[in-house]
Design a protein that fits this description.
D-Maltodextrin-Binding Protein, domain 2; 3 domains; WH_DNA-bd_sf; alpha/beta; 11 helices; Arc Repressor Mutant, subunit A
């Protein structure tokens, strides 16, 4: 029997497959979880293939499901290109815009960018994914998002990259600094910027030890606000909090925030527009 696909069913399956969650797919498509499940079941019946493992509270694609997910990615990429072409003719921006970023970026800088986007092009529908840098890189590589927003503390030479923000790392304390917080440094895991900070202290004959090692800058900022220690943070995190620079001066340790996308794939028109918009703010 010739397979005649139902595009809506494929869209629901694709959304669930990308997010690995029927719940998230239902929210993205503004339908019930039952509608997503039924669409997948109907696709399985039409194809005569099992697409997901039918286990309670677990979503996992089978080999056939992974094959269909890859084909859906190709199908919806073509649809997106068609939409881009017609939107360009009409000089408008509308439709999906998918990207991934860290939670710290989303909580600190992203709201202003999305607000500007909404004011400028209200018919754009952002789809956001969150995670650490490694997660973001994988989402970009697989084409699950149009682009990723990352800090430039790794090698991104395999990607197209564009700077969208820059700043510096500083030591911060609470505005109401307490003696209890003195010499208690709260640092993230060992990364380039942390190594540079420690090297500076060593060069000045001071040994610095982390009172706490925390993998989230937002959590570090919250702990510092509570007077629990001295935090080492990028300035965009500290900007909207009750924090002040620590009295001890350190050399400039700069950072850049980049928008990255695969070199072998053209950015969608919506993605290019949003990155340009960020650069103007």
């Amino acid at each position: 029997m010739k397979f005649i696909p139902n595009i809506t069913f494929l869209r629901y399956f694709f959304s669930a497959g990308q997010s690995k969650s029927i719940s998230r797919a239902s929210k993205e498509n503004f339908v019930s979880q039952s509608a997503i499940s039924q669409a997948i079941s109907k696709l399985e019946k039409t194809l005569g293939k099992q697409l997901i493992t039918h286990e309670k509270n677990r979503f996992q694609l089978t080999a056939d499901g992974l094959l269909l997910l890859d084909k859906c990615k190709q199908i919806f990429t073509v649809f997106s290109e068609i939409e881009d072409a017609f939107n360009e003719t009409d000089s408008v921006f509308k439709g999906k815009l998918s990207f991934a970023c860290t939670h710290s970026f989303a909580l600190s800088l992203l709201p202003a960018y999305l607000s500007k986007l909404s004011q400028t092009w209200e018919k754009i529908e952002p789809i956001l994914r969150f995670g650490h840098t490694g997660t973001i890189v994988e989402l970009v590589k697989k084409g699950d998002v149009d682009f990723g927003i990352v800090l430039d503390n790794e090698d991104f030479s395999l990607f197209h990259s564009r700077e969208i923000y820059r700043g510096e790392y500083h030591l911060y304390t609470a505005k109401k600094f307490t003696a209890n917080a003195k010499n208690k440094f709260i640092l993230s895991e060992e990364r380039k910027e942390v190594s540079l900070l420690k090297q500076h202290f060593q060069n000045n004959g001071v040994e610095i030890h982390a009172y706490m090692e925390v993998s989230s800058w937002e959590v570090i900022a919250s702990l510092v606000e509570q007077g629990m220690g001295i935090g080492f943070l990028p300035d965009y995190i500290a900007g909207k909090r009750a924090l002040i620079p620590y009295e001890y001066s350190i050399p400039k340790i700069p950072y850049r925030i980049l928008a990255i996308s695969p070199k072998n794939r053209k950015l969608s028109r919506n993605a290019q527009m949003f990155i340009d918009l960020i650069g103007q703010i």
